[in-house]
Structure formats: structure tokens, C-alpha cells
Write a structure and sequence with these properties.
Layout lengths: L8 H38 L3 H27 L3 H23 L6 H27 L1
């Protein structure tokens, strides 16, 4: 009987998660920039008031968060909700910090709504991606 050494799968998983994290963050940055340019262009062309501008930018951020969670779920193929939330967390933190900066660091209900929607969108994106991959 020949004893073989067990393969170290932990190293493979860690490098896979690290490369996935980097690719998801690159995707998120590109997608956020594209959505920012589109939403800014539409807001300028339509001459939207302040209230509509907030709603439009919130929708674009939620869509970006969903796409980031979805992309993370596709890449990892497991733990959709957790991977969606964790992988979109850095960009969501940046969005929240920018929101705080422009509101003079005042915390109100709109910030709570923004945080909740970003987390929900990234979790739903991750869940849908994993479930889509399992059906194939």
C-alpha cells in the first residue's frame, strides 16, 4: 500500500478567491465608471432636478452593486449571497463614503436606504448567479 500526500486544496482555493476578488473589483470599477458617465450624461441632457438626480444615481449604484454580486457569484459558483455581499463591499463602502462627503457627513434616512439597497442588490445578484449556474 502506497501512501500519498494529500493535495493542498486550501492554497488552490485561496488563490482562486484572490484572483476572483481582483477580477470582480476591476469589473466593478469599470461598471461603476460606465454607469456614472451614463447617469451624468442623462441627468445633464434631461436637466433633472435634485430629487430626480438622487433617485437616478441611486438606481445606477444599485444596478452596479447587483452586477458586481452577480459576477462574483458566477466566478465562485457557491455561497452566492455571501460572495455577492463580500465582493461588492469595497465599492459599496466607497459609494457610502462619497455620499457622506457630499452631505457633510450627516447621517439620515437616505443613507440607510442606500446602504440597505446596495447590500440587498449585491446579495440578490450573487444568489441569482449561483442558482443560474446550478441549473445548467
Amino acid at each position: 500500500m502506497v501512501k500519498t500526500k494529500p493535495k493542498n486544496k486550501k492554497i488552490k482555493i485561496e488563490s482562486s478567491i484572490q484572483s476572483t476578488f481582483i477580477s470582480v473589483q476591476i469589473f466593478a470599477v469599470i461598471f461603476y465608471i460606465i454607469m456614472f458617465l451614463l447617469s451624468s450624461g442623462i441627468a445633464l441632457a434631461a436637466d433633472l432636478s435634485h430629487g430626480y438626480d438622487y433617485i437616478f444615481s441611486l438606481c445606477s449604484f444599485v444596478l452596479c452593486s447587483f452586477a458586481t454580486g452577480f459576477f462574483a457569484g458566477i466566478k465562485l459558483r457557491q455561497n452566492g449571497m455571501v460572495s455577492g455581499i463580500l465582493f461588492s463591499l469595497p465599492m459599496n463602502v466607497i459609494v457610502v463614503l462619497i455620499s457622506l462627503f457630499f452631505t457633510d457627513f450627516k447621517v439620515d434616512y437616505t443613507l440607510a436606504v442606500t446602504i440597505t439597497l446596495l447590500i440587498l442588490a449585491s446579495a440578490i445578484g450573487g444568489i441569482l448567479a449561483v442558482n443560474k449556474r446550478r441549473r445548467r
